[in-house]
Specification:
56% of the residues lie in helices and 0% in strands. The protein contains 13 helices and no strands. Helix 2 packs antiparallel against helix 6, helix 5 packs across helix 6 and helix 10 crosses helix 12. The radius of gyration is 19 Å and the shape is globular. The two termini are 26 Å apart.
Length: 241
Amino acid sequence: MPPTRKQLMWIYTQLHSAYGPRNWWPAETEFEVVVGAILTQQAPWTNVEKAIINLKGRGLLDPSLLAKAETTLVETLVRPAGFYKVKSRRIIRIAESYGRIRAAYDLPINEARKELLSMEGVGPETCDSILLYAGNVPTFVIDAYTKRMAGRYGLAQDEDIDYHELKEMFENKLPRNERLFNEYHALIVELGKRHCKVKPECVNCPLEKRCKKKVKSGQRMKPSIGKPNILKTSAKARKRR
């Protein structure tokens, strides 16, 4: 049975109470978010930060300058993020296409996603990360942390749920608000880093009582659902519906 809005907002409230606001994405400019979204593919964020610092030190977090940069130089700078040959090519192409990316922020969401997904190296997760965190477009990001939480908490049958199926579940049940989507996804990431790891560390997990890996069959307790502070849907979000 699909979760209700109250159940999803209960999760949000529990995570927010435990971890506080995450203020994600850590970047000084929209373009830095876009570059980070490419570099973080199959890489831990600590390594991405090193590559970002390298690019910033050479003044290459400017799309016009990065687009003209020597590939060999960019490869050296992004090497800490792994797959440096592929990623250097991708961020240079992204810099060349940055005008298209910014223009996509003002399109209807489905059209914006289609535009970004047509670019080299931009898959669904990267696409939604760019739109949400750089463009403030209310589109929910799904990643390995989200799938793991959904499978363990019972929002999905297992962790192999389809990307778009899980994305639609969140978007159909929650208020379509970019601030809520931003904070919710960032909180799920924090949950995945602290507690809901591949090998879970469940002590003090804010969702422990409702986790299928912790509760014995027939003993699961229904959480008491209060009245979470649901963010009002922004005018921008309403316009995009």
